[in-house]
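Entry 12.
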Amino acid sequence: MWIVELAFTEAPERLAARPAHRALLTELHGKGIVRMAGPLAGDSGAVLVFDVQDRPELDRLLAADAYFTTPGVEVTRVREWAPFLT
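Predicted 3D structure (C-alpha cells):
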C-alpha cells in the first residue's frame, strides 16, 4: 500500500477540480484501489491510501488524475506502507 500526502492552498482552481477528483477516487474505491481518502482538519491538505503493488502503478494513477497537478495542490510525500491490520 501507498500513502500519498497533499498540501493545499486557497487557489480557486483546486476547488473547481475537486468534484471530478472525488468522483474518480470514489470509482477507484469501488474497485479496491483507493482504501481511504480525505482532507486533513482545516482543509490544509489530504491523505490518500492506495492499494497497489508498486510505485510505477501508483504514479500511473496519479498521472491519470489532473487534480494532482492542479494549482493549489501539491503532492508533498509518497510513502510505501505495510500495515499489519486492515
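Annotation: The two ends are 11 Å apart (CA to CA). The first strand starts at residue 2 and ends at 8.
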